[in-house]
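Hey, resending since the last one bounced:
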Amino acid sequence: MAYCLWPVTGNAQTNYSLTIGKYMEAQASVKEFSGVVLVANNGGVIYQKAFGYSDREWKIKNTLDSKFEIGSLTKQFTAAAILLLAEQHKLSLNDKLSTYFPGYPKGDSVTIHMLLNHTSGIVSYTSLPRFFALHTLPLAKDSIIGLFKNEPYTFSPGTKWNYSNSGYFLLGCIVEKVSKQSYSDFLKQHILNKASLTNTAVNRIDSVLAFRVKGYSRSENGGLRNAEYFSMEFPFSAGSLISTIQDLYNWENALLKGKIISKEYLSQMTTPYLNHYGYGLSIDTFEHHRQISHSGAIPGFTSYIGDFPNDNISIIILSNNDSPVGAIAEGLTSILFNRPYQMPYTPKEVVINYALLKKYAGKYQIPQPTGATNFELLTESNKLYLKPEGNGDFKMELKPESETKFFFDRDHDQEIEFILDRSGNIVKCYFSNKGAKLEIKRRN
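The structure tokens again:
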């Protein structure tokens, strides 16, 4: 497919729904996106559409009513449940872990606040080698906690940040201990019903569920296969919910407008602590626009929910074939904020004069709000390589699509492009990642 770049600047772009439609159609036709997308602007939905199949074997298509596993988007529901209990004075965010789990190693040093914002230092059970031998089994909660309870802390509680599914698993158990209800029942009674989420629930694989979507993953040969079976006992309060695109839009509106928890606790939930993380939410910026978002992944499914509260913009993406929803969201965000973006296409390697590669060699930086990314471009044996800073001898080959544009051999959706003047000097260069486009600065 031919290369297509849509630069958007100023107020030139006004028909966002049409542009988003073209972008998503390309994601579906070129990158095989399967799932549903919803984009809202100024309080109303401007685009929503379903793509691909909910069941490929029976050729049943996804619809806006399709129910997807949402993975770690579950965490914001768990955080809201904890904050609701705090609001009811049934627990405190300063409570120690040992209050609910007597004898837990270093339990007197870990607070509920640390569990909520991933600063507890408790290792994530999904990172443990033995997890992959057990994740298909319907283990009891105590057995799952036993997998990580006696593992060394990754750091002293409260000093650093590390994403921990274990922390959110423990939070779900705390909800049950305090409320005297199952996590599922408490969520339904106090959270889901409150937001009128009739199509959201803790997922049970053995239940007969209308409009349930099947998940698919990429095989080694590039095709699709049925996603690996995953027992829902494992993700629990860290990632076991199933939902629809409309329910998640309703949830986002209810939560951020203070209809679930008080403004005081919502403020704590959306405060960026270490690593720009709040409680079950990432708090960051895009081109200086405040962004509240989170992504999720579970075998066969990826999910994304993002809100720009000061701009009244929402983006929700659910996929059932492991599509890179975060990168797709960046492309959609770029469209909505009139920033350069790239339409999906499949690059093809061409033959160039390799003497040109020497002019591209050097040290570069990608400035970002969360910290700059440094790397070096170098030439070896008539090939161009990217070597990230601080990764030892690791490097990635860049293949030429033209004399000024190169794509990553291992990921064709990532590219580097050089803009030259008439004398052949580099004027600007860009890094494109699955649609989002960032300017690169040369450091030498």
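The chain has a mean pLDDT of 91.

Sorry for the duplicate.
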